[in-house]
Amino acid sequence: MTQQLWTALILAGQRPGIDPLAAQFNQQWKALIPIAGESMLSRVAKSLLALSESSRKGDSIKRPPIGRIIIMAQEPEALLTGDCAWLAKDSRITTAISGQGIATSIMTLIDQKKITWPLLVTTADHPLLTPEIITEFLMKTPDKDLSVGVVNRTTILKHYPENRRTWLKFSDEAYSGANLFGMRNEKVKSALHQWSMIEQDRKKAWQLIRHFGLCLAIRAVTRTISFEKALTQVGHTLGLTIQPVVLAQAEAGIDVDKLSDYKLAEQILKSRSRP
């Protein structure tokens, strides 16, 4: 694998209005919720920076390098406070203002030439993200236009049987997203466009079914197609190549959307810090 410099984009925004989880911790911004003594955004940024070129000097482990990080949110400067103040002082980190939706905002960055390829996209509410998980994803990311990180249900429930997630069910397995996306080139704009349609009106999901084809929709619902084959067919329709990247660590599939997620993630982080 060629040692390309990846650009990492951290999605740190939130839906309009008061975020219910942030409110429970007296925070305006979800990304700044403290967990095991450190905000979620700070944890994610540190894990990504561990793979930056300057941090990898003398590292005997072959890791795909990350060149710079972009933090995108409605008010990104408002996030650079408290234990995240250091982010404003690191030359490898810049910010970007998000628009009406995630997909549209990423497409704007692409159109404005503010992104260099390849691009790694993750989220600020993934405090369990580690350099090892990121490395595994990047090392397994094939030479496809779009790669999607997932963890299968067997792996997650083996380690955390009480954890509740949203499962994508296919003939081979059920999967949960890992909030990791690898984008190689501008071909991903067609996928981002479809993503923006879902963001604009989730009630019009039937339009997406019509776009991708009724046959594929039926096979997905009846679980007579594997996840990889389904993504391959979707990619063919969109004019790009898509590949799932199944990650080995259960924690890769656990982000923090609700209080039960937070309690589990905090428990895992505290166990990591024990001798």
From TrEMBL:
MF-aspect GO terms: nucleotidyltransferase activity
Magnesium as UniProt keyword: yes
Matches recorded under InterPro entries: MobA-like_NTP_Trfase, Nucleotide-diphossugar_trans
Domain of life: Bacteria
A Pfam family of this chain: NTP_transf_3
Domain MobA-like NTP transferase: 23-142
Keywords linked to the UniProt accession: Magnesium
Annotated protein name in UniProt: MobA-like NTP transferase domain-containing protein
Upper classification of the organism: Bacteria, Pseudomonadati, Pseudomonadota, Alphaproteobacteria, Sphingomonadales
